Amino acid sequence: MPEPLRIGVIEGDGIGHEIVPATRRVVDAAIAATGGPELEWVPLPLGADAIGSHGTPVPRSTLEALTDLDGWILGPHDSASYPEPFRAALTPGGQIRKHFDLYANIRPARALPGTHAMVPDMDLVVVRENTEGFYADRNMAVGSGEFMPTPDVALAVGVITRAACERIAHTAFDLASRRRKRVTIVHKANVLSKTTGLFRDVCREIGTMYPSVDVDDEHVDAMAALLVRRGGDFDVIVTENLFGDILSDLAGELSGSLGSAPSINASARKTMAQAVHGAAPDIAGLGRANPTALVLSSAMLLDRLSVTGNPFLGGAARALERAVAETIGDGIATADLGGSASTSEFTAAVVDRITAA
Ligand code: ATP
Ligand code: MG
């Protein structure tokens, strides 16, 4: 008898109250259909709800509960709507990411059949280093990486460390070894030769430990052009924080819609499933939100949990991805994908396909 599986669940704000319950329904169905163990959801307050109940968007008790879990799903947060002083702080998801040092932001870009992707054969994953580079708020080494010596001069410090390059490179090569076995390292070593040059060199070094994986590297500007021209040729792209932010948005857009772009934030031990999109306050509560991004993020979470001791969860992840692709391929989709299904109609159609398989 397998151990019961415990997965944390944070609803978040806005459409989180619609897409998170929808995702739970779909994951429950996929695990049941593939003969998985009992699944226990652990609901945890974070965001607007937590301000009401705990007087802070990020309660200590939530952080403590997450410490005991290997994985959780995170609904989107609309921190711009919080009262001061909570508005100015890093988003609740950002604080969780920082607290647990979730250094790898993994964002697949795969065109779903039946959607109008600009690069229909795209099937790649951007592995973005999530803790350093030129993003001041995430910068572990220098605290605040931006400063102004005079009102008319602004400076930013970028930090790249060997240790951070090594761990993100392992994430990328390990992933590629289970996919089409190709890693493209993205840098700008002709200009930022010390920082992104170190990133490139350390990734190359780690690559020698994965002889089955082919490696090449590109400058970030060339990479942007290549994604548009022949985005179908790439498998895993590994890059530093800022470049990864930009390239993953580009790849996401070329391969489909915001409502279907999944991601996880992970360390070696913890995985947080998180849709790329935000809380979409403009459509919150209207029953029109597309749960696809969070559902596909949850499939990525199940895949990671399958590696660490629950092998059958890979089957549940595949069942879930197949059912989403079939549903959209059959023309059942929410408005953001040009369809007319509500969140609950779409969710029910996905669950039907899982159960029927
Ligand atoms: P954030 O700053 O949190 O990233 P944002 O301002 O970038 O938020 P989103 O909340 O991602 O914005 O929404 C951008 C647009 O995409 C909005 O019009 C929103 O309605 C739409 N959108 C985002 N996610 C979904 C979804 N899951 N289903 C349908 N439409 C969505
Ligand atoms: Mg956004």
From TrEMBL:
Query: Mind telling me which Pfam families this protein's record contains?
Result: Iso_dh
Alphabetized UniProt keyword annotations: Oxidoreductase
What residue stretches are annotated with the Isopropylmalate dehydrogenase-like domain?
A: 6-350
The organism's place on the tree of life at top rank: Bacteria
The chain's coiled-coil residues are none
The family classification in the record reads: Belongs to the isocitrate and isopropylmalate dehydrogenases family.
Q: Is Transit peptide given among the entry's keywords?
A: no
Organism, scientific name: Rhodococcus artemisiae
Q: Which Gene3D superfamilies match?
A: Isopropylmalate Dehydrogenase
The record ties this protein, via InterPro entries, to:
IsoPropMal-DH-like_dom (IPR024084)
SMART domains for the chain: Iso_dh
Which protein are we looking at? Isocitrate/isopropylmalate dehydrogenase family protein
